[in-house]
Amino acid sequence: MKLLTHNMLTSHVKGVSKGYPLLIKATQVKVNEVDFNPKFVSRMIPKLEWGALVQAAEGLGHRQDLPGELVSDYEQNEDFLKKVHRILLEVEVMEGCLQCPESGREFPISKGIPNMLLNEDEV
Amino acid sequence: MAEPRSEEDLIRYFCTAGNGMEPFLMEEVKKKLAAEDVCQLPGKVLFSSSAGIDKISDLKAAERLFLLLKQDSPLRISAHTSSAKAASVLQYRLLGDKNQWTGAVMTWSRLQGELAGSRTTARTPSSALGLMIKIEEGRGSRGKEEEEGSCLVESRKSPEEQREEENGNERLKSGEQNGTRTLEKKRKRNHEEEEEEAERKNVEKGKSAERGRRREEEAETGMDVEFNSYHGTDVNQSTTDLENNVESSSRTMDFTERLQNVNTCGDKDQTPLIVGKSKPELSSSIPVSFRISCKCTGSLSRCFSAQEVSSVMGAGLSRLLGWKVDLKNPQLEINVYLGDDLCLLGIPLTRSPLAKRSYIKTTGLRSTVAWAMTCLAHIQPGSRVIDPMCGAGTILIEAAQEHEAACFLGLDIDDGQLQKASENTAFAELGHRIHLLKASSLALPLTSSSVDAVICDLPFGRKFGTKTDMAANLPLILAEMERSVLLIKIVLCVGGTLVLLLSPQLSFLLKKVLTGPSSHQEAKPPPGTENSPSPSVCATKQQAKASPQLSLLPRLSSLRHEATFRVSLGAIDGLIHKYVKTEC
After folding, report:
1. E strand segments, chain A
2. Any stretches that span the bilayer, and where are they (chain A) (predicted)?
3. Contact flag B384-A118 (C-beta cutoff 8 Å)
4. In A, which residues are within 8 Å of B384 by CB distance?
5. What is the CATH number of the domain that holds A12?
6. Are strands B154-156 and B384-387 parallel, antiparallel or unpaired?
7. What is the pLDDT of residues B18-69, one digit of tens each?
8. Do the domain assignments include residue A63?
9. What does the radius of gyration of chain A's CA atoms come to, in whole angstroms?
10. Which residues contact B43 (CB under 8 A, 6 or more apart)?
11. Given CB atoms, is B409 within the 8 Å cutoff of chain A?
12. What is the Cβ-side half-sphere exposure of residue A123, based on CA atoms within 13 angstroms?
């Protein structure tokens, strides 16, 4: 699971009002090399929940020096874009789980794919 | 490409297309190939383009690609005509001028060479193209790039004309040009588009250098054309030893055709190269082998069977050009279509249909239809696109191939499907842009307004065998469909697009569900669900998450229907619907 995906995920367990963002408990993290596409990154940034991204990156120990607040005029800042690219697409949680911040329910991640299926009673 | 193409480089092609795909294909050729004279016929699109063959063979909405040989008004033969007379009309109308045939074959040959040249280092499995490698004499080992074959072709005019036309047409290269580049170097640079032109030149340069080495004398007049035989790698790989000399009594010059012997190179075969001598011969030798496939529809099918047409034409062509019919393993395949609307003759340019993608291992939905759906989704750079029931991932892969600066998420409840999707994604080398999630479309684990486009092939109802099964499960199917659509609507941004593929029956039901009763205030529960109090129109999203009742129909009305397209999915038809999310 990449952090780009994590940024969109939320818990829909019954009764939960704030299921976002999910806490990451990783047991295996991989870092891949992915072609850098600045256009993609700069267009993606405004759509992200920046705080959740930084928090997730920090939790994985991969925050490096990502700022807590989005810098303005980041589109021309290739250095910054590369850092974001790295954290969005190159860092991958292969094994572990995602935890609902409210209910504590854990969603396992296996082979990079999170399992978000809910049981009947949770829906 | 640096050089602008001249008018003469406009080549006319036609593509077959699945029912309903024609408008998509027309759009595509106009947009990607700057095509001119685009004509749409049922199941076919004809167009002219000067774009490179690698771009043309990259068309996504087409089934098969052909070089147009001849297009003519339909044959009118009454059923009373004697078969002899009918045969002669056929031959007269369809065979026509010798030069047209040889010209077309030369163009075809050249295109084969270009195609192979640009694909040697591509991921295409060798069986997909099935072309052969020509190795220059004296070269030892081939690089590992040469996994697939290439069919190299060179056509040359006499030296004088060569010098004149050197700049314009890559087909005509003078032998005096620097032939230092090797085939190996050429292959390494395949991926760069601007090199494409240079590569073709190199091919010819390389070849001319080689020819220069091998012989001193050259025909001073006349056009030398070499083309190589064209074999599938999955078929018999024996070296062919054909030479073809065709003397044409053409208008301004004589030409000799020479077939250069080739080395086949499949994954396993390593047959030795035999290089033919290039002497200008006027006597005929072993001809090109060909096969005719014919399709007769409409009123003509009463006069002829496809077999009859094939054999009449085959005989005629043999006589006209000295070619040989080979039904099993021909070098050239000629497609004849005789219908009430027109006659069409063409030569297929690729071994396997364009619709069979080289980058997809296991298909689910037809790639052409999947691609058409992604067209409708209005994907932009930075778009987040999801497929909530992705299956093997066909839709996402087509979308990712087309849009490089967007990201894609596939969801499925089934491990087996996710496994296939994962394999497909890895195979297409799109793993960094297509991400997968195990989740249910009935409980999308995504934040609201987090998605720019949803593209989905809703499988509802297809797994049911009989009509009674369907009918019995209809309430459930409908309820699930409704819920999925509702959740999709929630995760979509305002202005986001939803593209759905449904069977015609379910489309009808969905339409009722989406447009709902005329009053927006009343909630009308679909059959089979329990009654619940109608909520207010602008219920908050929070409420929706907490109590996802199916009766929250009014909220679905913020999905504006924009278009519907009917396409063939093989045995059945499907309907593609496009919706845009509007403000609540």
Report:
1. 23-31, 91-99, 106-110, 113-114
2. none
3. no
4. 8, 44, 47
5. 2.20.25.10
6. unpaired
7. 999 999 999 999 999 999 999 999 999 999 999 988 899 999 999 999 999 8
8. yes
9. 15
10. B16, B17, B18, B19, B22
11. yes
12. 14
